[in-house]
What we know:
Blueprint: H1 11-36, H2 47-61, H3 65-77, E1 92-97, E2 100-109, E3 113-120, E4 124-127, E5 133-141, E6 144-147, E7 155-157, E8 162-165, E9 172-175, E10 179-187, H4 192-204, H5 207-226
Antiparallel strand pairs: 1-2, 2-3, 3-10, 4-9, 5-8, 5-10, 6-7, 6-9
Amino acid sequence: MAPKSSSTPGSSGFSGWLKFFAILLGVMTPVYYLLDQNLERFYIFKLDQLHDVAKRGIETYGNDTRAIVRHIVDELSGQVSLTSYINQDEEWIFNNAGGAMGAMYIIHASVTEYLIIFGTAVGTEGHTGRHTADDYFHILTGTQLAYVPGEYEPEVYPPSSVHHLRRGDVKQYKMPESCFALEYARGWIPPMLFFGFADGLSSTLDLPTMWRTVWVTGKQMLGNLARGKF
């Protein structure tokens, strides 16, 4: 009598999937590394450009946040190289992430960049998240505070300042009262969406807001990909 095979039903299929994922990982790892080393070539926004337009908006309109936001959007959309990448439909959507709550207006979203106005008129506090992109928070009105473990004093960011959260870093942050900012992230944007949806899935369960966020973000990302913007 022939000896029975020690393998169980389905074990060969499972082994096949393991081999598939191992091969996929082996192929994708160098591709990811190559793209990650060349992310700069995909960026359409310049750091000094965004800081300059935000500062001039603040200098011109003071504490009139609505006017500052319109100034920023109008100036960016007026530049030939950016016109087709700027969303001028000012739709505000609630955003819950890391325990903090505010609202955002998505000006641009693509695989390697996003540009939004984020803020709240009543204050909020939370966890920044640990992200796959550098985040530049240009304060327009109000003040943001940030805390790093081991420090005994807060980082203070008033209007016209920029809070740079480096890729992979994490902080506690607080907007004690009304505060709005031009937030720009550059790096790998899709993995950041998991953090953005976590509170909605586990706490608020605000499905209409989540759906609207997915719709607007997806429309922006796919539309920009169709234009050749990675």
